[in-house]
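Q: Is it fine to ask for two folds in a single conversation?
A: Yes, each is treated on its own. Send the first.
Q: Here.
A: Result:
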Amino acid sequence: MDVKSAFLHGKVEEDIYMNVPDGLEDSDGRVCKLNKALYGLKQSPYCWNKRFDEFAEKERLLKCERDPCLYIKYNTKSVIYLLLYVDDILIVSRDYNEIQALKSKLQEEFEMQDLGNLKTFLGINIRRTEEGMYLSQKSYIHDLLKRFKMKDCKESKTLMEPGNLIIPNQTDSTESEVQHKPIHELLLNVPNVGYQI
């Protein structure tokens, strides 16, 4: 599910004023008071998250203590997991009817688009078969290799041979930092792509 204009659903709690937008005439020097969050406002992500938390509480979705983007609802027959990532929502349960009921409530509360069965989420490819569901990061890895011009490199069972150390470049060149630091950070922040240091 995709929430359309998610940040615009957030309610601003403090008084925030802005200049009159371009295209509107105002010779008196007045300003506009915001009632709702706007994109680009520092508080917007917080306001949207708080607004979603209110909805989740109303629907008896419990916020996970270890991952604040994960909500769980326990029913007598099943458990529903809802994962919120900015404006994307992933709903998982063994009970199809419970998923549909929650989707309906979400669509009543927020303007949303149902994207159907999940194929990709946060760089993870999902493939369904009769035996179950398979997760892969193949596309993400190929995108990384392409981004860093390593598409034709030779394969290895590990990213680096055991015992190799990452040693920062001793020159003052910032080009090296730009090229190597992002891939290192990207690889370490994605499960099963990075290696242990």
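Q: Second one now.
A: Result:
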Amino acid sequence: MADGQLFNNILLGGRGGTNQGQLRIHSGGIVWRKQGGGKVVEMGKPEISSLSWTRIPKGYQLGVKLKAGLNVKFNGFREQDVDNLSNFMTNTLGVTPEEKQLSISGRNWGEVNLEGIVKVYEESLC
């Protein structure tokens, strides 16, 4: 596919569990379709405010933050997908994904920030 990249077996994360489907990233934005039909999640290029990669058990998670304040998370990427896809998204979507670390230190303090309608806890790494 010349205009985009297609990934199968990508999970859409959310409060209702995870749904498996197909993710397509192209010059117009990002589209996820539930396997077997049904639910479709579309995010146009102008709607995307930031992208992030997070290392999770058994792979990587792509976080997409929308200008409306919503966060959408896609799980199931392999390590070899991250660099290639990061370059592709930077060139086609104009947004460079940042690397986010999960807090595994056990600390329960840090800084609370509001990002749109989402509360985010950030731990300083000192």
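Q: Anything structural to flag on that second result?
A: Two points. The first strand starts at residue 4 and ends at 14. Residues 61 and 75 are 4 Å apart (CA to CA).
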